[in-house]
Design a protein that fits this description.
Elements (H helix, E strand, L loop, with lengths): L2 H7 L7 H16 L4 H12 L5 H9 L2 H8 L6 E16 L1 E13 L5 E8 L6 H13 L4 E7 L5 H8 L4 E4 L1 H10 L6 H12 L4 H13 L1 H5 L1 H9 L1 H4 L1 H4 L2 H8 L2 H15 L7 H15 L14 H11 L8
Parallel strand pairs: 1-4, 4-5
Antiparallel strand pairs: 1-2, 2-3
Helix pairs in contact: 2-17, 6-7, 8-12, 9-10, 15-18, 16-17
Length: 326
């Protein structure tokens, strides 16, 4: 009997069900890790001696769409110390192939664990209206307060946060700001540039940081790279809140390795496919990648910082009564 027919007619009582479930799980896992349909067929034939059709792979992966909708609309905790918002670009065919941003929100909960709160496909050039819709959706799913919203150069986001969550602090990602500076300079100057920039973002006060930036701007290095000075000055309103944070909160905000590791895996899930046929297919691919790597209640492996309790204590003091400790 062809495998497709077996898959359709299988019932719970069928003794072949566990075997087929393992096959389905294997297909989903390979799909989530960035393998194309052709690669999955080749892998299953080579490793397991099983021939499957492209149609069967589509049926197996389409079966998670309802799960994706449930996940995208699930209730969320009311209070989050920090939410990171970032974007990755995916090639989607909609008439013609175009790169579209997929926005993701990654929250850090009261236990210091990470969780991807949602994925949204956008269009290039979107601004505050789009972000207000995303932030409103998160509010409707139960989020009542966020202490810090960390992001990097997403057009319209700071204004949208201010409009919908006036108590939230919008914070530019310091690592992204530093890396943007390094991209604007020659690698031979990096040994001198790195400590000059570190003097800015490790300054004890905003006044000291501004003095360090002025000194850099007046130096030979600053005169050689005026675009770096301009980058820091333009980001200054969203960078300076970082300087008011106590050390443990600075550590959590500065270290974006968690978000970057998630982004790297999501990019891997889409890169090998060249382009994706629709926005829904893009979300399906990315959701499977999310499901493969994130379990918000999985224990220590999802912790953001080794000393989260220290950071949480500083959050509760710095943001006063806004955190409800359970």
């Amino acid at each position: 009997m062809p495998l497709e027919s077996t898959q359709v007619r299988t019932t719970v009582a069928d003794p072949r069900t566990p075997k087929l479930k393992r096959l389905n799980d294997r297909i989903l896992s390979l799909y989530a890790r960035g393998m194309s349909v052709r690669d999955i067929r080749s892998h299953l034939a080579r490793i397991y001696g099983v021939e499957v059709s492209p149609d069967l792979i589509s049926k197996v992966t389409d079966a998670v769409i309802d799960e994706l909708v449930t996940w995208q609309n699930r209730p969320l905790d009311p209070v989050w110390p920090i939410i990171y918002i970032d974007a990755l670009w995916v090639k989607i065919r909609s008439g013609s192939v175009a790169s579209k941003p997929v926005y993701l929100a990654v929250g850090v909960d009261m236990d210091g664990r990470k969780d991807i709160l949602g994925l949204w496909v956008g269009s290039e050039g979107e601004g505050a209206i789009t972000w207000m819709a995303v932030l409103s959706e998160l509010r409707n799913r139960g989020i009542e307060d966020v202490c810090i919203v960390a992001c990097d150069g997403l057009k319209g986001l700071p204004d949208a946060v201010t409009a919908t969550r006036p108590k939230a602090t919008v914070q530019t990602c310091v690592i992204h700001l530093t890396r943007a500076s390094l991209r604007l300079s020659s690698s031979k100057d990096h040994p001198k540039l790195v400590p000059a920039l570190k003097a800015i973002y490790t300054a004890p006060t905003e006044a000291a940081a501004e003095q360090a930036l002025d000194q850099f701007a007046a130096s030979d290095l600053g005169e050689r790279y005026p675009a770096i000075v301009r980058t820091w000055r333009s980001a200054w309103p969203e960078f300076t809140p970082y300087l008011a944070f106590p050390p443990a909160i600075r550590t959590v905000v500065y270290s974006t390795n968690m978000v970057e590791s998630i982004n790297a895996r999501l990019r891997k899930a889409t890169r090998n496919r060249g382009h994706i046929p629709s926005e829904q297919a893009a979300l399906k691919v990315l959701y499977l990648a999310v499901r493969e790597q994130i379990n918000p209640k999985a224990g220590d492996k999802n912790h953001v910082a080794a000393h989260w309790k220290e950071a949480l204590n500083q959050f509760s003091l710095f943001f006063e009564d806004r955190l409800t400790i359970q």
